[in-house]
């Protein structure tokens, strides 16, 4: 390993003490490596980011999502370290970082490949796209009426939804917004796409699970009341009435570094299911 990146959510390390400690640990096991530091994923998609053998991403799930999109064109392996609240996407807690770095040094790790999707707006720029690890959401403005969504799968008309919004999610994103909207939990390494309506007028409107090779096209009719495209809950783009949105699987993957003690079902039970039950009990 010659080039190692450290990316941190600056709000969670305002004094810089965590970065200094992480740098010491990395240097302990990779004495001759170059360390590149990034804050809030800025410049991760630059030439420096392209050089990285792997990236240590420190933060919560939002930090991991942002970093994954920034390095997707390089397919840089990411060691996701939780210093946030939930940390469902992270591989290890900060207290176990040294153990993780030691195992990477000893080549005792695996790469967990996660499917990503991309969204394009052909009326604006056919070549430009927005990538997402969790989901792409199309929704109405705060005080708008429901929106009409015409959905096409591989060019064939599927359905018209009247709903507050629409979630197109990856398996990784099935435990995020899509789950809150009534979608199913999908094992994260599967190759499928979920399409879930948000508060549809018809109670019969449910999630459909598509093959990952299916291409989804959506035309919106917002009746001049405003609609928005949101990428992984972080980037927001205002849409035009009657605008067409194309969504499909990306050829590249998000590569998450895992160790032999990583257990998806333990994480699912303790960080998603148990928290939901606890919230219900608190009510």
Automatic annotation (TrEMBL):
Presence of keyword Nucleotidyltransferase: no
Entry's EC annotation: 2.7.1.23
UniProt binding sites for NAD(+): 61-62, 66, 134-135, 145, 162, 164, 175-180, 234
Cofactor(s) the protein requires to work: a divalent metal cation
Transmembrane domains' residue ranges: none
Top EC class, one word: transferase
Keyword Nucleus set for record: no
Residues annotated as catalytic: 61 (proton acceptor)
A molecular-function term among this protein's GO annotations: NAD+ kinase activity
Localization (cell): Cytoplasm
A Pfam family annotated for this UniProt entry: NAD_kinase
Family: Belongs to the NAD kinase family.
Protein name stated in the entry: NAD kinase
Biological classification of the source: Bacteria, Bacillati, Bacillota, Clostridia, Eubacteriales
């Amino acid at each position: 390993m010659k080039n190692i990146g450290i990316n941190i959510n600056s709000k969670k390390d305002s004094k810089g003490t965590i970065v200094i400690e992480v740098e010491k640990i990395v240097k302990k096991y990779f004495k001759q490596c170059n360390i590149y530091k990034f804050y809030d994923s800025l410049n991760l998609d630059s030439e420096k980011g392209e050089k990285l053998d792997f990236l240590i991403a420190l933060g919560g799930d939002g930090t991991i999502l942002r970093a994954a999109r920034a390095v997707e064109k390089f397919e840089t392996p990411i060691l996701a370290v939780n210093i946030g609240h939930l940390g469902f996407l992270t591989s290890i807690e900060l207290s176990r970082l040294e153990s993780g770095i030691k195992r990477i040094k000893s080549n005792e790790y695996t790469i967990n490949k996660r499917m990503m999707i991309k969204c394009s707006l052909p009326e604006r720029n056919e070549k430009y796209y927005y990538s997402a690890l969790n989901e792409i959401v199309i929704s109405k403005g705060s005080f708008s009426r429901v929106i009409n969504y015409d959905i096409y799968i591989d060019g064939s008309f599927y359905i018209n939804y009247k709903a507050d919004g629409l979630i197109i999610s990856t398996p990784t994103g099935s435990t995020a917004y899509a789950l809150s909207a009534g979608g199913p939990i999908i094992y994260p390494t599967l190759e499928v796409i979920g399409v879930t309506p948000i508060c549809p007028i018809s109670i019969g409107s449910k999630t459909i699970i598509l093959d990952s090779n299916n291409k989804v096209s959506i035309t919106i009719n917002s009746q001049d009341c405003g609609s928005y495209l949101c990428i992984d809950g972080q980037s927001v783009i205002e849409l035009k009435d009657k605008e067409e949105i194309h969504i499909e699987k990306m050829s590249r993957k998000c590569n998450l570094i895992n160790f032999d003690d990583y257990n998806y079902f333990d994480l699912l039970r303790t960080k998603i299911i148990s928290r939901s039950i606890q919230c219900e009990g608190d009510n």
